[in-house]
Automatic annotation (TrEMBL):
Organism annotation: Bosea thiooxidans
Annotated GO MF terms: iron-sulfur cluster binding; oxidoreductase activity
Keywords recorded for this protein, A-Z: Oxidoreductase
Protein name, as recorded: 2Fe-2S iron-sulfur cluster binding domain-containing protein
Record InterPro entries: 2Fe-2S-bd_N, 2Fe-2S_ferredoxin-like_sf
């Protein structure tokens, strides 16, 4: 079975070495809640997403891992992280 993580409960496949952002873009997902993937180098914070069991992460810098559960960042998370 292809490696995948979950975005809003839906499986998103990824290839080894891909970031979360690359896999989301590959699946046609560009809007991440409050922001979108813009710089791709960790500078704009537009790609912040919520990861179950962890603080918000930058999708463009974070390697995809099998079984991760991700979702758009809630307003209160973005304001306090
Ligand atoms: S796209 Fe700019 S920080 Fe990730």
């Amino acid at each position: 079975m292809t490696a995948h993580f979950y975005w809003n409960g839906e499986p998103v496949p990824f290839r080894p070495g891909e970031t979360i952002a690359a896999a989301l873009l590959g699946a046609g997902i560009v809007h991440l809640g409050r922001g979108r993937i813009f710089c791709g180098i960790g500078a704009c914070q537009g790609c912040l997403v919520a990861m179950t069991g962890a603080a918000a992460v930058e999708a463009c810098l974070t390697p995809a891992r099998n079984g991760l559960r991700l979702s758009p960042l809630a307003e209160e998370q973005a304001d306090h992280d």
